[in-house]
Design brief:
By secondary structure, the chain is an alpha/beta fold. It is built from 15 helices and 11 strands. It has a domain of about 35 residues. It has a 7-stranded parallel sheet with strand order 1-6-7-8-9-10-11. The model has no long low-confidence stretch (mean pLDDT about 95).
Length: about 350
């Protein structure tokens, strides 16, 4: 059973005897630490760890096209201040991995939306010249094949900033609804481009949001149902048209208030849950939402910093749910610089040795 078959069997509550050994991603500082601890610089990390990527993702370019012109405002040895391809003025650091410091936005109110909407339309130029080859390589990789379903809230938040987005939802909700409709239409076009080139079936549709902070989402459940859910339902229908029954969303932060609305709108898989920051363990999620909610992630990445006893305890806490199915266990997000290389290898070995 290859990684793709194993992934499908787990998430469809089929027959399986193990978890996939997945290595996802890490902070720049984590890589630098691990290289000091013996990982060869520039090595293919999946080969080095004898682990697989989460999936083979394939999609046309679904963000702003053509991009806005990049404008460098200031540059030092430590940082760059520039207006990026999405029109956002931001400060990024050269020698550390971190979220940029956002300074200004082109898209501030509803009157600025038309300039963005015209850059969010289907266009053959969104397909790279080797797109057919990329689709074929993904399908032949032995990995689950994921198609990108864009972002219905998070990209808008990136392009506007949280405050501007919140004001627009209140002052001009019809414009907010139009951003969702435009992005969902583009996502459906992208799904068609991938599905029409594949011999088999896409395994999962996956979107990105990052639409919550530590106390809850930036979009209330009521506004979500009225203005955002129609876009998710449209994408869900398009996925089902191509035989895809798993629709996943990646959103950091405390998104618990939106899990129920997401399920009702057709999103049936969550990654991540971030149990280390807001304590929504996969076991709590399964107890609350049942087997309809599929889960990827769920292993508290912060346990990896606390030594092997903590790793063992975290690992053992998920055994029952792993056996039940509908849960592909992996660390919930980027591996942090506090994790020793040998302890990360220890975690991967425990997953590798697991048999049900």
């Amino acid at each position: 059973m290859n990684a793709r078959e194993l992934f499908g069997n787990i998430l469809h509550y089929g027959e399986f005897d193990r978890m996939p050994v997945i290595h996802w991603a890490l902070w720049q500082e984590t890589r630098e630490r691990w290289e000091r601890e013996g990982m060869p610089p520039g090595v293919n990390q999946h080969r080095y760890f004898d682990a697989v990527p989460q999936w083979a993702g394939i999609s046309p370019h679904l963000s702003i096209y053509p991009p806005f012109e990049v404008e460098v405002v200031e540059e030092t040895d430590e940082y760059v201040v520039q207006r990026d391809e999405s029109g956002v003025l931001q400060k990024t650091w050269k020698n550390q991995g971190s979220v940029p410091h956002y300074l200004d936005w082109k898209f501030k109110t509803a009157k600025d939306w038309p300039a963005y909407k015209e850059r969010l339309q289907p266009d053959p130029g969104r397909l790279p010249d080797d797109f057919d080859d990329r689709v074929r390589e993904a399908e032949e990789s032995g990995l689950p094949v994921s198609v990108r379903t864009a972002s219905l809230m998070g990209w808008v938040r990136n392009w506007m900033g949280v405050e501007n987005m919140c004001f627009m939802m209140y002052d001009d909700p019809n414009c907010f609804a139009d951003t969702v409709e435009t992005l969902s239409d583009l996502a459906c076009w992208g799904i068609d481009q991938v599905a029409s080139r594949m011999k088999g079936r896409i395994d999962i549709g996956h979107g990105w949001e990052d639409i919550a902070g530590s106390t809850g989402p930036f979009v209330s459940p009521d506004l979500f149902e009225k203005y955002v859910a129609p876009g998710y339902r449209k994408i869900r229908a398009k996925l089902e048209e191509h035989g895809v029954d798993i629709y996943s969303v990646d959103s950091d932060g405390n998104v618990e208030a939106l899990i129920g609305p997401w399920l009702a709108a057709g999103v049936n898989c969550m990654f991540p849950l971030e149990p280390g920051t807001w304590k929504m363990t996969p076991e709590k999620a399964r107890a609350k939402y049942g087997r309809d909610l599929l889960i990827i992630g769920g292993f508290d990445k912060l346990a990896l910093e606390r030594g092997r006893d903590a790793i063992d305890a975290e690992f053992e806490s998920h055994i029952s749910l792993m056996k039940e199915g509908g849960f592909v266990m992996m660390p919930d997000h980027l591996i942090t610089p506090g994790v020793p290389l040998d302890d990360y290898k220890y975690y991967l070995d425990k997953v590798r040795e697991l048999r049900f």
